[in-house]
Design goal:
Blueprint: E1 3-9, H1 13-24, E2 29-32, E3 46-48, H2 52-57, E4 68-76, E5 82-93, H3 96-109, E6 113-115, E7 119-125, E8 128-133, E9 137-145, H4 152-156, E10 168-177, E11 184-190, E12 193-199, E13 205-212, H5 213-216, H6 222-228, H7 234-241, E14 243-245, E15 251-253, E16 264-265, E17 268-270, H8 285-306, H9 309-338, H10 341-353, H11 355-365
Parallel strand pairs: 1-2, 1-9, 2-6, 4-11, 9-17
Antiparallel strand pairs: 3-5, 4-5, 7-8, 8-9, 10-13, 10-14, 10-15, 11-12, 12-13, 16-17
Helix pairs in contact: 1-3, 1-8, 8-9, 10-11
The chain binds flavin-adenine dinucleotide (FAD).
């Protein structure tokens, strides 16, 4: 029976980054991931630059890749009124297909073990974890739960948020567009949601939106929804009319939950979306996933010295809440503003005259570079 220092359940951004960080400190790490790499994921693919120094320290120099370096935000209301601002910190556009694979390859090269299986249960007994998958059981001292926004494991663990249905769906595809500007992320409002557009490392434009199911269900298909609802915003109409779909079909996910979650459950240290998902319009979920990987890795390294599980769990909860709770709160306020037509029109007219206000709002949901 092989025993690991740490088992990480879910090899997305939070899981892969913590695997890489912990393995660089000499810990024996296993990642259990249910899908193979590379793989496209529903995501806006705009990553805040706050993660650059940390990723560089882990050996990933994003600035030397073909990622689109983004410094400007264009925001439009559903009728097409728009404002643009320079982003205080900026970010980069890279597909999840490329970014997750880059991290996976780096982690593998650093000695992290991978099992492509589905974790079905986590049992904590006699101070160790037994992680069950659809194939076998694995054992470890510590477990990180980085299985994303919603997983069958949440049900198994009886987590509070999973008991409630949520009305949000997410849609994404890449498009070929000859005139989409570099260095720009666009966020366009439409009835019941908003759509992000930004370039990726291949030059393709990532088109990704979040929509309320009530608005979505009235149309029979994604194509109809794009045509009849999104296209009422002239910016989205122009984009859809002048670009070509590069995927066979759009990717879709449903039941996206923004409810509060706990950073530690059943002694599992939760990271990334499994600990809390910020509203996508903030463009900060990936940075938070990577940042939480650093927080959890630092606390685990300290545990290796003091061996006090209670202290580990309390310290991690404390630092997680201190770092992210305020951002999540502001994210939910912005989401409410952006989805209320009354507020959006008024808000747009205010920020178009005072762009520094928009910058301030962005700063509330973003962190400082992770050193
Ligand atoms: C519509 C939308 C747009 C977004 N746009 C942006 C954006 O532009 N910028 C931004 O920063 N953030 C954005 N986000 C948020 C961002 O996608 C997430 O915050 C980020 O992916 C979180 O990473 P993670 O590692 O926590 O989860 P994920 O990347 O989802 O990884 C979780 C992994 O766990 C695996 N898994 C799940 N269950 C199991 C199991 N039982 N066993 C084994 N493996 C399992 C999954 O296969 C997956 O690989 C957006 C989100 C949505 C919904």
């Amino acid at each position: 029976m092989k025993h690991f220092d740490v088992i990480i359940i879910g090899g997305g951004l939070a899981g892969l980054t913590s695997a890489l960080d912990l393995s660089q400190s000499g810990l024996e790490v296993l990642v259990i991931e249910k899908e193979n790499y590379p793989k496209h994921k529903v995501c806006g693919e705009y990553v805040s630059n706050e993660v650059l120094p940390y990723l560089k320290r882990l050996g990933l120099d994003i600035l030397s890749t073909k990622a689109d370096l983004i410094h400007r935000l264009v925001l439009s209301s559903k009728t097409g009124d728009s404002v643009d601002v320079e982003l205080p910190l900026g970010g980069f556009g890279m597909s999840r297909y490329a970014l997750d694979t880059l991290l996976y390859e780096k982690a593998k090269a650093n000695g992290v073990s991978f099992k492509f299986e589905t974790a079905t249960d986590v049992v904590f007994e006699n101070e160790q974890f037994r992680i069950k998958t659809n194939e076998q059981d694995y054992y470890s001292d510590l477990a990180i739960g980085s299985f994303g926004k919603r997983s069958a494991l949440d049900k198994k663990l009886n987590r509070d948020f999973i008991q409630q249905k949520t009305p949000w769906v997410g849609i994404k595809a890449h498009y070929q567009s000859d005139d989409f500007p570099e260095g720009e992320v666009q966020l366009h409002n439409f009835d019941g949601g908003y759509c992000g557009l930004s370039k990726t490392e291949t030059g393709a434009v990532n088109f990704c939106y979040l929509a309320h199911y009530d608005s979505f269900k009235k149309e029979a298909s994604i194509e109809n929804f794009n045509q009849n609802i999104l296209s009422r915003n002239p910016h989205l109409k122009s984009f859809l009319d002048n670009s070509n779909l590069l995927f066979d079909k759009h990717l879709a996910i449903s039941q996206i939950s923004f409810q509060n979650k706990k950073p530690v459950e059943n002694h599992i240290l939760m990271a990334g979306d499994a600990a809390g998902l910020i509203h996508p319009l903030c463009g900060n979920g990936m940075a938070m996933a990577i940042h939480s990987a650093k927080l959890v890795s630092d606390k685990i390294k300290a545990f290796k010295t003091h061996q006090d599980r209670k202290q580990l769990e309390a310290n991690y909860s404390l630092i997680w809440n201190k770092t992210f709770r305020k951002r999540l709160h502001f994210g939910s306020i912005f989401q409410r503003i952006l989805l209320q037509p009354k507020f959006t029109t008024l808000g747009m007219s205010i920020v178009s005259k005072t762009p520094f206000l928009l910058k301030k709002m962005i700063q509330q949901t973003h962190g400082q570079p992770i050193l």
